[in-house]
Amino acid sequence: MKRGMTALGLVAAAGLVWVSSPAPCEQVAQQRQASSGDAVVCFCADGMQGPIEGLVVIRGERIEEVVLLRSREGLEHDALSVEHLAAYQGQEATPPTVVDAVSGATVSSRVLAAALDERLAAWRSTTGVDQ
Question: Among 6, 40, 48, 56, which residue's beta carbon has the most beta carbons within 10 A?
């Protein structure tokens, strides 16, 4: 069974809600949410070279930060660089997110964007942001 873009969980300002709880994301999300009050949404997707796991930090209704916790994408395992992740910063936390793909890592870039879009949609639905 392909894991795909499974919902791992989300931490909203109102509290912690987990669909399932991967330890690294849960720990980072709890720490970040407790210290800042930001919403923290975990994501996981099947990349070209293994799982891409991380979290997106949402402040208000904008993406504050995208953090990779695990990725082996690219020859040096750095295809989804800090610079690429920074391109999401400041965007509205509403799918679809739009950033340029990484040259040579187009599939990985698209997998990341799709995972973020899926989790942002779930966050918006769960928290009632769109109501």
Answer: 40
